[in-house]
Amino acid sequence: MENKKWEFGTAQAKIEITNGLFTWKEFGGKGGSLPVRSISGLSYESKGFLSVMAKVSIMASGSDGKSIEVPKKAKSEQMINDINSYLAEVNKKTEDNVGNKSSIADEIMKLANLKSQGLLTEEEFQQQKFKLLN
Questions:
Q1: Sheet holding 53-60, edge to edge
Q2: In what order do the strands lie in the sheet with 14-18?
Q3: What string of DSSP letters covers 19-39?
Q4: Rounded to the nearest 5 degrees, what angle is found at the Cα of 105, between the Cα atoms of 109 and 134?
Q5: Is 1 helix (H, G, I), strand (E, B) or coil?
Q6: Is the pLDDT confidence value at 18 over 80?
Q7: pLDDT at 92
Q8: Torsion over CA of 27, 71, 62 and 35, rounded to 10 degrees?
Q9: Count of CB atoms within 10 A of residue 75's CB?
Q10: Is the pTM of this model over 0.70?
């Protein structure tokens, strides 16, 4: 999972994804963090016609309605859409990896059998195992 950062301009609000943590910060230093895998998405809600701020709700398992205020701008709404796309991609990769764990284990067992039969050297076995796990 790559590190990402979105800054919302003059309100000093920002969202970062670093080392598996989803971290947010608002003007004045309020903020928090949650594991990325616990977050299903964000919702953007305009606070009213005259308001200059919008509310971004963080939808996460085990969370009690966390939110962040960002400037009410089309750019902010687009950034939330970008973050949701990124989160969907991360969650899909996580689901795919869970489904592939047994097949990776099966592949490593096959490589171990080839090594025990003398068809692979220890170095070749370790190289192939590294490729499968990373």
A1: 39-46, 53-60, 67-71
A2: 4-7, 14-18, 21-25, 31-35
A3: TTEEEEE-TTS-EEEEEGGGE
A4: 115
A5: coil
A6: yes
A7: 80
A8: -70
A9: 11
A10: no
Quote the pLDDT of residue 100. Answer: 52
Check pLDDT > 60 for residue 10: yes
Closest by CA position to 43, among listed 11, 10, 74, 68 = 68
Q: What are the distances in angstroms from CA 38 to CA 32, 44, 64, 65, 98?
A: 14, 18, 12, 13, 15
Q: Measured between alpha carbons, how far is 42 from 46 in angstroms, rounded to an integer?
A: 13
Whether the predicted pLDDT of 96 surpasses 70: no
What pLDDT is stored for residue 102 in this prediction? Answer: 57
- Tally the C-alpha atoms within 13 A of residue 130's C-alpha that lie toward its C-beta: 6
Tokens standing for residue 101: 């764990």
pLDDT, average across residues 91-112: 70
The residue extents of the domains of the chain are 4-99
Distance CA 8, CA 43 (A): 15
Residue 14 bridge partners (DSSP): 7, 25
For domain 4-99, the CATH class is mainly beta
Task: Give the whole-angstrom CA distance, residue 88 versus residue 85.
Answer: 5
